Amino acid sequence: MNTIENKSVLITGANRGIGKAIAEVFLKRGAAKVYAAVRDVGSAQSLVDEFGERVQPVALDLSDAASIEQAARVASDVDIVVNNGGVLKTAKVLESGAFEAFAFEIDVNVYGLMRVAQAFAPVLAANGGGAFVQLNSVASFKNFPDFGTYSASKAAAYSVTQSLKDLLAAQNTQVISVHPGPIATDMGDAAGLSEIAEPAELVPEAILEALESGAFHAYPDSMAKQVGAAYASFAENVIEAEMSVG
User: Fold this and answer.
1) What is d(CA 84, CA 80) in angstroms, rounded to the nearest whole number?
2) Is residue 244 over pLDDT 90?
3) Which residues span the membrane (predicted)?
4) I need a labelling partner for 202 at 20 to 30 A (CA). Which of 94, 114, 182, 185 fits?
């Protein structure tokens, strides 16, 4: 069980959308410090203006392992890592640009997750375990054809997150897989979901609940909760169960 009070948190993609909402809610709920991990540190200035020295912008590009490793050295006191950053290309798998779109999404959404996990797992272990939170999607469970390559990348990210859950348990690090549905962000708008999107603040609230309860899955919004309810039996009996191969 983890709480946010007096904790040091690093959030990738904290300058806008869900990442910014996570930073704001966490700070209002008592986080001691938020490392706003962004490609352009100037883009986190509004958080600094609102919360002062409790926000420390740090350069991090999910496609650049060296920048992630440097961020891990800077944020050496971190207790909770939230890998929120990600990319979306609205590509259908039969389109000519699907391969390029998928390669881009895999590099950021999957390899980026792995880069962050490899860099920060030792930091979390040194600081007592803490938590690693991965922003996945309802698209991790169901492929939506209008953004088929993105859905496939999020399915892969979810698979990696399951692996991290088991691997990091040994160092007392809680892993949380967050699966939002349509959320009111620029990415949601790009996916054509603005009419049914729900507030971004639902995501940090769901993360906080999972931190406190010890849950692996977090379902923030109405669609996510509906999908999560349908998925619950499989999740409990397969994903969250102890199983071995061979």
Assistant:
1) 12
2) no
3) none
4) 114
What's the predicted TM-score (pTM) here?
A: 0.94
Is the model's pLDDT at 184 over the cut of 90?
Answer: no
Instruction: Please write the tens of the pLDDT for every residue from 65-77.
Output: 999 999 999 999 9
Q: Is the pLDDT of residue 196 over 80?
A: no
Please state, in angstroms and as integers, the Cα–Cα distance from residue 206 to each residue in 18, 176, 202, 203, 222, following that order: 12, 10, 6, 5, 12
Indicate the DSSP class of residue 34: E
Q: Which of 51, 50, 47, 73 is CA-nearest to residue 60?
A: 73
Tell me the two tokens of residue 152. Answer: 């496939």
**Other Cβ atoms closer than 10 A to 41:** 16
* Interval 195-217 mean pLDDT: 93
Number of neighbouring beta carbons within 10 Å of residue 194: 13
Alpha helix locations (H) across 127-183? 148-169
Interstrand relation of 217-218 and 174-178 (parallel, antiparallel or unpaired): parallel
Mean of all residue pLDDT scores within the chain: 94
Strand partners, 82: 11, 133
d(CA 187, CA 5): 30
SS3 of 71, please?
A: helix
| Assigned token pair, 58 | 């740090």
Q: Judge contact between 150 and 139, C-beta under 8 A.
A: yes
Residue 126: name the closest of 165, 77, 91, 163 by CA: 77
For the domain spanning 8-239, the CATH number is 3.40.50.720
Tell me what pLDDT residue 197 has.
75
Of the candidates 179, 183, 196, the residue with the CA atom closest to the CA atom of residue 230: 179
Sign of CA dihedral 60, 84, 48, 29: negative
